[in-house]
């Protein structure tokens, strides 16, 4: 096997402020609920009666927060379903695009709710996982709760990256409303659209939080108008469009109804949650029903099912029926029962419908199954998530260094670990490969699979992974691929924010990747340009490093799956070959001094360098290696090392 040591060369509508002067109406100031449904009727020319705008004068908070979703729909819905609404609980999910400050806002909410002592030192509260802290992103959804004026608020923090959209889809089954956090400068981004679309499909109430309002380049009017247009594009109802707007600074822990007049704390945000998010509708006297929406594992308690109790009362020690469908049921017993209070699970004897709880004792419980009444319980609809878009091949480590650093090296170890991942990661799929020691892992994106790889190497696994490949489809004998905004292939929407001086190289790079520009606009005083592309998912593989190189590290790239579209043709993602070691041994300064003239090195010498001056080798991370490798190359992953090598099976075929 040859280990790689280096490389060598070889007119879309643009959102603007809503113009209402043609109807002889003054533009409303973005200081309160502003009645977005009224704007919608003005904007679309509806024949419905016109509501007057909210007054811009300073008025008490309790008088200004008025939400049609929780008021207009309650009576009709409750009468139709004969359910009762619990007013002492609110179940909400915090959703946003990555880096819009969602987790920081939740941390501030917890601190102001006196979850911790005043003298207690706390790091990141919600992003407690090591990988989350290292990467600065939320990977796993987390439950917590606070109490505000005798109302229990169950809060679920969700991932913001599009690759973890499956987590968001699951969590929306547990809540009645969402806080949609939007950056005060960037406005709605690709993941904002995805999470809002899902929330609207569930019929959830939405409170829009314009976060980071203290940024010097904040543009709240643009953000609110763009968000409102997004509601319209997603076919939101009048009631859903009548969303409450809260302006906040999660870092400072302040919120208000006006961007110029924030309160001293997050009181306005808490008030909006209680008044604008409806309580859960329940059948208190109905047969027990709880949908397992998430699974955790404890060394002492075993598998823990987390979900919202839809009907009935759940008690510790109760015998229950566990159903996947009406024809597939088995029996179990609740050994322990927990509810969420502040930042921890608290034991409970009983839980009433409407609350979120954790159940122990059912060792084989799976996500999407229903815990129901033993005699008359019926299953709830199972959880559905969108299909994967990228796949990678996992195989056992066959390098000369196998077994030196890892604990789990056999194909059986690898197989068991990969299939165990499916128990809680619904958006991922695992299939057996062409050989007994190869497995095909499919996910929502390269980051989705890379996080799994990183977790496995930290657990002591040794294995190899191949380059990411796009999952294509055939419809009417036509090859379709996924687009990040394209048509009839795996197409993605790619939004690039880049300084104006680097626009040319970035546009050229995206053009070579078969991207088509659909929108371009300036973003204000920071001198950056926002470009929106439809591009095949294949074109995104390895794009991150390239776009950072041509923009001198200043570009920001965000993508989300759009649709399947027509095959866009071949794409060249790398114009370099690889320098490989031709025998086993330790690298020396003498050898590398000659090799570095032919390309950038990935490794350094095995001994200290004194007289020979060497270029600094490229320090490639796991993500960088996966982006770099091509069809005939592999990444060797061990607990201590990450190496790139040629695929010996493909080398033999080429010979």
From TrEMBL:
Reply yes or no: does the keyword Protein biosynthesis apply.
yes
Listed A to Z, the keywords are: Elongation factor, Protein biosynthesis
Q: Does the keyword Disulfide bond apply?
A: no
One Pfam match, given by its short name, reads BipA_C
Q: Name one GO cellular component term.
A: cytosol
Q: Which is one GO molecular function term here?
A: GTP binding
PANTHER family in the record: TR-TYPE G DOMAIN-CONTAINING PROTEIN, TRANSLATION ELONGATION FACTOR-RELATED
User: What is the protein name for this chain?
Assistant: Elongation factor TypA-like SVR3, chloroplastic
What is the species listed in this Swiss-Prot or TrEMBL entry? Sesamum radiatum (Black benniseed)
């Amino acid at each position: 096997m040859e280990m790689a040591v280096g490389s060598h060369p070889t007119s879309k509508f643009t959102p603007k402020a809503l113009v209402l002067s043609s109807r002889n109406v003054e533009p409303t100031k973005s200081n309160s609920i502003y009645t977005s449904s009224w704007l919608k009727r003005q904007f679309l020319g509806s024949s419905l009666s016109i509501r007057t705008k909210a007054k811009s004068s300073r008025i008490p908070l309790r008088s200004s927060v008025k939400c049609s979703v929780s008021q207009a729909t309650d009576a009709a819905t409750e009468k139709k379903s004969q359910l009762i609404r619990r007013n002492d609980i609110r179940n909400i999910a915090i959703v946003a695009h990555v880096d819009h400050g969602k987790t920081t806002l939740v941390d501030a909410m917890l601190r102001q709710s006196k979850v911790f002592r005043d003298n207690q030192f706390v790091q990141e509260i919600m992003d407690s996982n090591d990988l989350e802290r290292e990467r600065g992103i939320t990977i796993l959804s987390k439950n917590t709760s606070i109490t505000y004026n005798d109302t229990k608020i169950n809060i679920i923090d969700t991932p913001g990256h599009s690759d973890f959209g499956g987590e968001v889809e699951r969590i929306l089954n547990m809540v009645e409303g969402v806080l949609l956090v939007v950056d005060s400068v960037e406005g709605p981004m690709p993941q904002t659209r995805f999470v809002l679309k899902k929330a609207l499909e569930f019929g959830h109430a939405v409170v829009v939080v314009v976060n980071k309002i203290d940024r010097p380049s904040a543009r709240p009017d643009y953000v609110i108008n763009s968000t409102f247009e997004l509601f319209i594009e997603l076919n939101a109802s009048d009631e859903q469009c009548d969303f409450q707007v809260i302006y906040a600074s999660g870092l400072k822990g302040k919120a208000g109804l006006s961007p110029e007049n924030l309160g001293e704390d997050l009181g306005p945000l808490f008030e909006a949650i209680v008044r604008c998010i409806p309580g859960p509708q329940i059948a208190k006297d109905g047969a027990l029903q709880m949908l397992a929406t998430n699974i955790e594992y404890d060394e002492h308690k075993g598998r823990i099912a987390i979900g919202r109790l839809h009907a009935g009362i759940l008690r510790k020690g109760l015998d229950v029926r566990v159903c996947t469908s009406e024809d597939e049921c088995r029996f179990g017993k609740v050994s322990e029962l927990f509810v969420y209070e502040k930042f921890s699970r608290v034991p409970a004897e009983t839980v009433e419908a409407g609350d979120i709880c954790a159940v122990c004792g059912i060792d084989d419980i799976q996500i999407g199954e229903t815990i129901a009444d033993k005699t008359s319980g019926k299953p709830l609809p199972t959880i559905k998530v969108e299909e994967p878009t990228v796949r990678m091949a996992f195989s056992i480590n066959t390098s000369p260094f196998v077994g030196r650093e890892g604990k789990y090296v056999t194909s059986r170890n690898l197989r068991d670990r990969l299939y165990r991942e499916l128990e809680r990661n619904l958006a991922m799929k695992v299939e057996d490969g062409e050989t007994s020691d190869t497995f095909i892992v499919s996910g929502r994106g390269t980051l989705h699979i890379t996080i799994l790889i990183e977790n496995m190497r930290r657990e002591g696994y040794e294995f190899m992974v191949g380059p990411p490949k796009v999952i294509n489809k055939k419809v009417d004998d036509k090859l379709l691929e996924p687009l990040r905004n394209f048509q009839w292939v795996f197409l993605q929407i790619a939004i690039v924010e880049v300084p104006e001086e680097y626009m040319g190289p970035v546009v050229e790079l995206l053009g070579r990747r078969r991207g088509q520009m659909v929108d371009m606009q300036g973003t204000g005083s920071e001198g950056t340009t926002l470009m929106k592309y439809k591009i095949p998912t294949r074109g995104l593989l390895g794009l991150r490093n390239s776009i950072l190189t041509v923009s001198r590290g200043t570009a920001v790239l965000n993508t989300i799956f759009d649709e399947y579209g027509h095959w866009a043709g071949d794409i060249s993602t790398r114009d370099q070959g690889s320098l490989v070691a031709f025998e086993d041994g330790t690298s020396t300064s003498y050898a590398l001094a000659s090799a570095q003239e032919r390309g950038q090195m990935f490794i350094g010498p095995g001994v200290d360098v004194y007289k020979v001056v060497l270029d600094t080798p490229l320090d490639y991370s796991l993500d960088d290696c996966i982006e770099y490798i091509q069809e005939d190359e592999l990444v060797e992953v061990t607990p201590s090392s990450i190496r790139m090598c040629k695929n010996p099976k493909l080398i033999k075929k080429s010979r």
